[in-house]
Amino acid sequence: MVHKVIELVNHEAWFEVEQGRLYVKWGHYPKTDGKIDFCIIKNVEVDGKRGIIGISKDSSARGALFLEPFPSSYALLEYDKGIFTKTKDGKWLPMDSDEARALGFDVEKSYRIIGRAIMFFSDPKPLGKGLELIPSVPNAKLCQEVEVKVFEDGEPAEADITISYLDGKEELGKRSQVRVPVRNKIVVVKAVIENEGVREVSTLTLVGA
Predict the structure, then answer these.
(1) pLDDT value of position 6
(2) What is the pTM of this model?
């Protein structure tokens, strides 16, 4: 139970393409940790239409879910983890702050955690879906720098940015845009905003070829 709560609080989703198929992974890139719970998925979109997400022998072997059909423009996954409360001694509880206090816990903060994963295949532009990371180009050559901008509901915004590579990550702090060196075949950029009781997380997958 403790592991499950920590997983829900800390993990995020991202996309990867392997052998011509699109997969949804869960954990902290590049390390997966189980699969995203179907119950928290709120929206799956491919090129503006409803996508199909599921599990198969092939996707399970990759520690992932599959997403179909394969996009020509973009893929989007949105999820809602619910409300969590952090206590001053470092515990995470799957309840709101009033419930936690009623049980005798010393509350530090409480918020609803929502997230999304985005990957572009052509014509990257804001989708107006809350917190989004929008790249200047959908694909890059290895070692090319890609400019990535932060948007909230289609408008320019700032967020705490982390870039994850195969060999580690860079935490850049609050930014409205960032230049990302695509030094691996897959780079995952994460943005986080905490505002008015909501923690919003968004990931963008960049592919180098």
Answers:
(1) 52
(2) 0.92
